[in-house]
Specification:
0% strand; 8 helices; binds fe (ii) ion
């Protein structure tokens, strides 16, 4: 692992670890999507590597190995994060199962489309990671384990962001397929993130958080996140204009 974050121990997650309920639950909702999502990334690249073997490019082979290793570690770390969340909010288990069923459906698509989806998800992750790394609008920068876990994950995403694009270039995935995949991946992430964030906030209200305080949190989060989402939209557009550019 690239830094001192210990992902093996149990994460005790405070409900407002990211300063407010809504900001915290936004990242908690994202974490619920990650274990099945990262399994999809790993399975897709490993399938292509077997089918394309022997790869003419030893560097790409090593980069895929590193990608798989890092995503596997992220997956384990977020599974522990989610398990800790589920101890506090048992309804989380149903969300985890639903996220798994959605990625099972993605796994039935053609290999070029799956590869394009991997590149699209990786781009979306890298855009968020860039934003997290450049300011603390979305994610608190403090020594809490949750914050350090997200920052460690973001750094590794930025480090291996080029791998899926390199694979798509080698596999001959067309730019039009990559653009379509970006639309699908964005819709999937946006809808499920919004849905699960609201579901977790409802659980907090049932557990005693005031509705008015939650509404105030939501408005404050929406207002403060506007510059972040504007920057991320610019990052999103880079993929639309040049989907096979590994410098995205
Ligand atoms: Fe990851
Ligand atoms: Fe990644």
């Amino acid at each position: 692992m690239s830094d001192a974050v210990d992902t093996r121990g149990r994460l005790a997650i405070a409900r407002r670890w990211n300063r407010t309920y809504v900001r915290s639950r936004f990242f908690d909702a994202l974490s619920l999507l990650l274990p099945p999502g990262e399994a999809f990334l790993i399975e897709t690249l490993e399938t292509w590597r077997v089918l394309a073997a022997p790869l003419p490019d030893a560097t790409l082979e090593r980069e895929i190995e590193r990608f798989v290793r890092e995503e596997h570690t992220h997956r384990q770390a977020h599974q522990r994060y989610n398990d800790a969340m589920a101890e506090d909010v048992p309804q989380v288990r149903a969300v985890m199962q639903r996220a798994g069923r959605v990625t099972d459906e993605l796994g039935k698509m053609s290999l070029p489309m799956r590869l394009a989806l991997v590149a699209a998800f990786e781009h979306l992750t890298a855009v968020l990671a860039e934003e997290i790394g450049s300011n603390d609008n979305l994610l608190i920068d403090d020594p809490s384990r949750a914050s350090r876990l997200w920052r460690w994950h973001a750094r590794e995403e930025l480090d291996h962001r080029h791998v899926a694009i390199d694979v798509c270039a080698h596999a001959g995935v067309r730019p039009a397929t990559l653009r379509l995949a970006l639309l699908l991946a964005t819709a999937y992430l946006a809808l499920d993130l919004a849905r699960y964030t609201v579901a977790l906030c409802r659980c907090d209200i049932r557990a005693g958080a005031g509705r008015r305080a939650m509404l105030f949190d939501a408005l404050r989060f929406a207002a403060s996140a506007v510059p972040s989402f504007a920057r991320m939209t610019r990052g999103w557009c880079r993929f639309v204009f040049a989907p096979l550019d590994r410098a995205l």
